[in-house]
Batch of 2 targets.
Target 1
Amino acid sequence: MSNKPRAAMHASSPDTARLREKVLDYARERMEFDPVPLDTPQTETYLREHAPNTVNSKGLGGDEALRVFAEVLAPACLSTDHPGYLSFIPTAPTEASTLFDLVVSASSIYGGSWLEGSGAVFAENEVLAWLAREAGLPETSGGVFVQGGTLGNLSALVAARHTAMTLRNGRPERWKVICSAEAHSSIKAAARVMDIDVVLASPDANGRLHGQAVRDALKTAGDGVFAIVATAGTTNFGIVDKLREIGEVAREHKIWYHVDGAYGLAGLLAPATRELFDGTELADSFIVDPHKWLFAPFDACALVYRNPELAKAAHTQHGEYLDTLTDGGAFNPSDYAYNLTRRVRGLPLWFSLATHGTSAYSDAVSQNIETANAIAQVIRERDDLELVREPELSVVVFKKKGWTLVDYDRWSSKLLESGVGFVVPSSHKGEPNTRFAIVNPRTTLKLLVKILDTMKDD
Ligand SMILES: *Cc1c(COP(=O)(O)O)cnc(C)c1O
């Protein structure tokens, strides 16, 4: 009997060693670009023509598969870390975090249980503890890194409802969650999955939710409200709700308080905006996405609970093959969200934090906020442009006077074609506008001004 695996693709050979070097070289080159090409989307017809039959019985061989990726597929993916990528929420991983994502990939660590991943889970928990401290939650708080804010919000709401179920006698006719009309779409998505109702509270003219509006919503909602969600930095405008007021209303009514800070909660790290987050410490749970404004690669959401035991009661999966983990009493990250098998997706952020220190994070977030304020000032000074709202964190929404959606679309396509920037049209109250979401410290004021200069009628 030979010791060689029969499955050739698991055997080490000069070929696999060479491919290893080639793929690592590719990754190195991708990291060395400054700036990385922005690239462009392609049609399916184009991709089918240029990358035909890649999945077949014989395989292409690594060289050819890598060539197809490097020459055809990768250029058809936008580089979300390009300094001119300013749409939606970009990403701007530090080199340390990207490097460590490679290490996570190479390490086959099971992140669901302490038994299997204690070292990595310990490191992830150090990061969660730092975030909890910054937010003002007690030392006994804890949680887990999940795939994204959507899953983080769902997991927190499931824990909240489970807690309400165990506390009250009898079920309400409908379970309800209160959030702002400007809350992220993922709250509504979670409500559909959970078959619960969303009661919308009205924000003020600037899009900020106040305690009084939550009180009003509680009155209209009637029975069955188990959670109140505040947004710490709306995705569209970066507006932070009145976190303390809303938290106090939640406390008064003994209702779970969840703070959705997927994008904005990182603003807590900047001295200039820290005050806006006053009251986060009242939260029963919060989320913040490292892949948005904490300079980590896709994908990661930090989900933190004031009392992790409540989340564990809601989320632990029981099964014969899992009992040995569950009964051991150790800290198993899987128990704290709607997930089981998990990548240790908090580890890239841990490595970068351990490398650079938390002050470097405050500096980077502060820099983005300064850049946002500086470009907002340029917009104020230009007669043809107008701010839609005063920026609060690092999102700047503005319009070009007289432009219709057609004008924005035409300009946006040209800008992408030129490789300078990716800035898509948006809208507010039916009026088209556009927006810069600035989370990349490589995004300079100079580049933003250059992009403004391309907004011409022609
Ligand atoms: C982006 C965002 C989400 C969703 O997070 P994903 O990681 O995209 O799933 C939720 N809430 C807010 C406020 C966000 O900005």
Target 2
Amino acid sequence: MQEKNWEIETKCVQSGYRPGNGEPRQVPIVQSTTFKYATSEDMGKLFDLEASGYFYSRLQNPTCDTVAAKICALEGGSAAMLLSSGQAASFFSIFNIASCGDHVVASSCLYGGTYNLFAVTMKRMGIEFTFVDPDAPIEEINKAFRPNTKAVFGETIANPALIVLDIEKFATAAHEHGVPLIIDNTFATPINCRPFEHGADIVVHSTTKYMDGHGSAVGGCIVDSGKFDWTAHAEKFPGLCTPDESYHGITYTEKFGLEGAYITKATAQLMRDFGCSQSPQSAYYLNLGLESLHLRVERHCLNGKKVAEYLSKHEKVSWVTYPGLKGDKYYDLAQKYMPNGTCGVVSFGVKGGRTAAEKFMKALKIAAIETHVADARTCCLHPANATHRQMNDEELTAAGISPDLVRFSCGIENYEDLIADIKQALENV
Ligand SMILES: *Cc1c(COP(=O)(O)O)cnc(C)c1O
């Protein structure tokens, strides 16, 4: 039985690392910055990308590659790389194919850190973004494209708005304009949704969230489907389809094929120059998390659903958003793209606004107040008081975040305990 035909649960446990006779059962942590070679000639071949092998952990490390291979298998991709954070993954995923003077179309419902990276920092690098309403009809989305558009970007389930992206609609729009669709699949995880099966071309992750799952290591990952034909739009992607002078004139698509060109370029150029590499120790923690991802995600989703159902019936709760809840605006899209479950994060409002939300959170005994989501331990955040603190109530509403919004990230505890905790906390409001 071939590895690629394994079920996702088996891949979580077994993919990436297959030790040989007498080798360690656990993934070895190769805690080494550098690697030894017999001759300079051997090493020269690595520097010319003529041979594959390790020479410096800023570019590649065996532990990181082993764990990347597991995530690659989970997503059904052709190649993958680990990065130091989800932010680095989002940045590399675009900067690998767009430069100063280029343009990208992105969903307007994104993680706040990603929005800032795109709208402020990458804009300063000369890459312009047009943000489109993810619910807009395709005709509307098509109008956002320009001749210099190089990619489309969106989140499977947006953090914290919990909006489900119509991946097929965005893939169609991207492909009609000869550019790839990049999906941030952090919240859904490959357990619940594999964007490549719906037409996406590249997937990014903040592995800090469900993949690590234990609040141990910040990290990111990029996976390439290997299916986007860069050479069919060679004029748009000169970095992949014309010789790279910094590597003696090799052309990535010619030398590494469609399966390898994108990740090889991101490693050989961007990792070399920016060095956003993950440490082998962090990759080891990430792998421990991945071994139980399928079990944890199932429980996160059960808890999310139970908590959302409870909240939706509570008289002190003004509204609940959870794409796995019947009647939710995104329930049908969630059923289409992730029929087995969505995520463990529930957003809701407490009657009485900002002050009531504060009182409620202060009274929680199990759920902790944290700038984190998607962790084994239940945690929550009041964006109006934390990540979006600088905004007044009007600005918050414009950003789709009401002052009373509580982002409640269900862990893997027993849901009856979580509900009892919410119940007593609401009694304090
Ligand atoms: C947290 C998060 C990121 C950023 O990841 P870091 O690992 O914190 O850099 C990106 N996208 C989503 C959806 C996130 O939740």
